[in-house]
Amino acid sequence: MFIISITYLVPLHEVEKHLAAHLLFLDKYYESGLFLISGRKQPRTGGIIIANTTQTLEVEEALKNDPFQQHKLATYEVTEFIPSKTTHKLNFLQQIP
Questions:
Q1: How far is it, in rounded angstroms, from Cα 11 to Cα 32?
Q2: Residue limits of the YCII-related domain (predicted)?
Q3: Do residues 70 and 63 make contact, with C-beta atoms less than 8 angstroms apart?
Q4: Residue 34 and residue 58 in contact, taking contact as beta carbons nearer than 8 Å
Q5: Which of 28, 57, 58, 73 shows the greatest Cβ crowding within 10 Å of its Cβ?
Q6: Please, is 40 exposed, middle or buried when counting C-beta atoms within 10 Å of its C-beta (0-12, 13-18, 19+)?
């Protein structure tokens, strides 16, 4: 599983010009099952995406399709983690070795 932290490099009004395309990007990867949750940071300096995969390459390939990356509007910090404890409703996410 991966936490993707997005940080804007440009003023918010520039980001908002590409927001509709970014939302379509998110929809594509929600439908594929790669993305589980996403949202804005507060204060609004970027966003967070949680991706459900064990493959770094899958995340990297998906992020190439984000309009924010294509237009050099943001940077991405990708952190892999292994969920070992969850609430019972999220047990399906656990990756116990």
A1: 31
A2: 1-81
A3: no
A4: yes
A5: 73
A6: exposed
Query: In 4-87, which residue ranges form alpha helices assigned H by DSSP?
Result: 12-16, 19-32, 56-63, 67-70
pLDDT reported for residue 96: 62
Structure tokens at 70: 């294509």
Domain containing 50 — which CATH number? 3.30.70.1060
What is the extent of the structural domain holding 30?
2-93
List b or e across 54-83, with b for residues whose CB sees 16 or more CB atoms inside 10 angstroms.
Answer: eeeebbeebbeebbbbebebbebeeeeeee
Q: Give the global pTM.
A: 0.90
54-83 tens-digit pLDDT? 999 999 999 999 999 999 999 999 999 988
- Token readout for 81 is 């983690």
Among candidates 12, 13, 15, 49, which has minimal Cα distance to 30? Answer: 49
